[in-house]
Amino acid sequence: MKEKKFTFKTKDGSRRLFVLCLAIMLLFCFMSNMLSSNFYRVQHTRVTIDVRGADIAFEMWRPANVMPTDKLPAVMISHGGSEMLGCTSLYAWELARRGIVVINENMNGAGMSGQPNLDATGAGKGTYTRAGDAGHLDILNYIRTITYVDPTRIAMWGHSQGNGTQGTALRLDGDYLTLNDRMLEILMNDYGVEITEEMLTQNADDIAAANLDDLQLGEYNQKKVEQQAIVDGYVKYARCAGANTKIQVCGYEVIRDAQVNGMPSIGAHESNGLPDPETNARYKAQFHTEEDLKVGGIYYVPDNTLGTNEPTVYLGQIFETTVQNNPAFKNAVEHNQARFYCVPQTIHNGWLWAYACVSQSVEYITQCLEYNCGELSDPATKPISGRDCSLGYATLVFTTLSFFALIATLMALASILLKTKYFEVCASECYAPKMPKKGKDIITWVIATAIVGFIGTWCCSQNDLSFTICIATMTKFLPWEPGQLRMLFHVVGTSVSGVLIFLLLSKLLKKKDNSEPVLANLKELNLKAGKTRILRSFLLGFILFVFAYLCACFIDVFFETRFLHVDGSYERMAAWNFGRMFRYFILYVPFCLVISTLNNMVTVKGVSDSADTAINVLVTSLGMIIFMVIGFAVTYSTPGHAEIFRIHAMLSMIFIVPVTNYMYRKMYKLTGSVWAGAVLVALFVAWRAAGYLCQRFMWYGNNEIGAFWGLYF
User: Fold this and answer.
1) What is the end-to-end Cα distance of the chain in Å, rounded?
2) What is the rounded radius of gyration, in angstroms, for the C-alpha atoms of the chain?
3) Angle at 576 between CA 574 and CA 582, to 5 degrees
4) 516 or 300: whose pLDDT is higher?
5) Which of 24, 193, 295, 457 is deepest in the core (most CB within 10 A)?
């Protein structure tokens, strides 16, 4: 029989598989790089600045042929809590494709960004809050120094916690003060005019004319020009609440809206659903209207701070209403008085990945900046509709495929290493298949395994509990967030429920006629493999992780891309996060070992090795699949149905569960033991926990050595 050229069974076959999988991975990375750069029309740069004694890291996307004399609009994009900048990649790719300068940022304590001892609000040890500005103000001021950026056309888009912290940055930047507020402050502070509370709704020019002499009035008018320039430099657009906020003017507390074109927004399927009275009332208040808001509607929201009572006006629907065909919309944008009621059919984290969210946001941002592949006022400009997000999603497909190819490459590398003299001790024959491919036994196993997977996924979905526990238990040694904790919930819930259910299953499948059992025992799974074999299995797992990490660094440098799937990436980390990663690994590995054992107790008779692996991965992932199908089906059963199962926090599991189940199974097939798979999975899960999921819930300062060891003196 002719030997297969690509096979895990021989050293040469494994080498060929390794080269093939590596080449495919690099091809996918090349494709993602080519697409994300819009076929090299866009230049991507990683930037790190230090403003307050800690690094702020972000990615910049700009036209490749930019000139210092250009004046291009810019957008700064921010992720939410328990995330880093990889999650907002779709927005970066699509906005950069339209010729806009994009700054995709890591908040303080996320990704490659450190945490200063004092943030822009003055908060630090003992006063830290994750509701601070998170570094946004420093990045905003940096953008204003870029020569080819138009400082009057800078926008902000933030998700969840990034949305709220950008609002803090707007307040620190003074973007809630109207021009009249600023002139009243000047009258009081520079000319000693007493400003009463009643005068706050009066025109400052009238007060100046009544109280200043001709010379002072001339100075006042010059200062007004200077203040107008400051107001013109306010952020042009922001996705933040930005309305009915308390600020101080002339020593009095007043209510103001951010002086920006806004996009108050919420997913129709968030925790309470769209027809929620409390939510609807809050959004009506932001639009200053008693009328029901039209989903997808663009509005003119006038500034009535001078005592006027001009009503809010509906201008039209997104995509249909533009600054070119609607003069009222253009006027509203120019005076920072446009608002968009963006309520797509999505869940909370759908804002990062769902087509309706990305397309509508991109369209409104380009309208507010009046730029899309050129100035919208230029008849020669050929804008790309926000409906066209094909480049961004194509890029995401290739970053995901590159991740899958990485896993296949690791399996081939493991096969090569296991055929060396040093690691051959880690490999032994797998037990003979026992489970019939038809009949009651396999049905019972499928049902039991699906129940275990469902319970593990349900444990991972406990979003509110993860917030409560992380806030109560986080320490500088382990400054975890809900994201890291939910992964712990998953592995603990899966392993504990799995042990209990498989104990019951062993009773149900016990053969009364003393025939061979269909479940493998612990001896057959080589759980007690001996110290040498176990230690070398750990070493094997670490070598595979190091190779994967080096691949992530390589593609970061040469292809400017990452191993990214929905709500997860595996990429270069800050040095101190390796210490945190190891601590997460110690937490995860015992439970991963239990799951690896449970996953490999069944091998199906009468099918090929690859078919058995596919069956195993499908069955062990079935509980998650059922959980997510139910969650999405019920949540999206009606247009405004409330989210169930907190599926917004579970999107990453759609990828993580089958991939880790494949690693458990394939590493067992290669080694005949459950150890190597458990180690490798725990390392990957810990890598995501330390690299992709941020640590922003507590203050730990800028001591990088302390952060690595988790010890502060």
Assistant:
1) 67
2) 29
3) 110
4) 300
5) 457
Among 665, 83, 84, which Cα is nearest to 407's?
Answer: 665
Q: pLDDT tens digit string along 83-93?
A: 999 999 999 99
pLDDT cut 70: percent of the chain above it: 98
The whole-angstrom separation of Cα 324 and Cα 617 is: 53
User: Whose CA is closest to 540, among 676, 407, 683?
Assistant: 676
d(CA 19, CA 478): 39
pLDDT score, position 575: 94
Query: How far, CA to CA in Å, does 256 sit from each of 115, 306, 637?
Result: 31, 12, 39
A 10 A CB-CB count for 630 gives 14
Q: Given this model, what pLDDT does residue 277 score? A: 67
Which of 137, 132, 138 is closest to 161 using CA atoms? 132
pLDDT confidence band for 610 (50 / 70 / 90): very high
- List CB contacts of 45: < 8 A, sequence separation 6 or more: 59, 60, 61, 62
User: How far does CA 701 lie from the centroid of its chain?
Assistant: 23
Q: Does domain 42-173 have CATH number 3.40.50.1820?
A: yes
- Asked if 287 and 341 touch (Cβ cutoff 8 Å), the reply is yes
DSSP letter at 710?
A: T
What gap in Å lies between CA 184 and CA 305, rounded to an integer? Answer: 13
How far apart CA 356 and CA 250 sit, in angstroms, is 43
Query: What pLDDT score does 241 carry?
Result: 62
Alpha-carbon distance 230 to 175, whole Å? 9
- Compute the distance between CA of residue 369 and CA of residue 513 in angstroms, rounded to an integer: 77
pTM: 0.96
Please give the helix or strand (H or E) that residue 472 lies within, else none.
helix 463-473
* Structure confidence at residue 512 as a pLDDT band (50, 70, 90): low
Distance CA 392, CA 192 (A): 56
Contact 396, 91 (CB under 8 A): no
Write out the two tokens for 553. 């660094």
Q: Which residues contact 706 (CB under 8 A, 6 or more apart)?
A: 476, 700, 712, 713
125 in Cβ contact with 701 (< 8 Å): yes
Q: What does the chain come to in residues? A: 713
Give me the pLDDT at residue 1, please: 52
The residue among 366, 368, 382 whose CA lies nearest residue 96 is: 366
340 CB neighbour count, 10 Å cutoff: 27
Helix (H, G, I), strand (E, B) or coil at 101: strand
Give start and end residues of each alpha helix (H) in 71-160: 89-97, 136-143
The residue among 250, 301, 259 whose CA lies nearest residue 175 is: 259
Rounded to 10°, the helix 482-508/576-599 angle is 20
CA gap 163, 266 in Å, rounded: 11
* Encoded tokens for 563: 């191993």
In 3-state terms, what secondary structure has residue 99?
coil
Residue found under tokens 């050229």? 5
Q: In sequence order, which residues have a C-beta less than 8 Å from that of residue 213 and are 6 or more positions away?
A: none
- Measure the CA–CA gap between 696 and 713, rounded to whole angstroms: 20
User: Which residues, 6 or more positions from 2, have their beta carbon under 8 angstroms from its beta carbon?
Assistant: none
Burial of 546 (0-12, 13-18, 19+ CB in 10 A): exposed
Report which residue type is found at 160: S
Q: Where are the domains of the chain?
A: 11-27+395-707, 42-173, 265-388
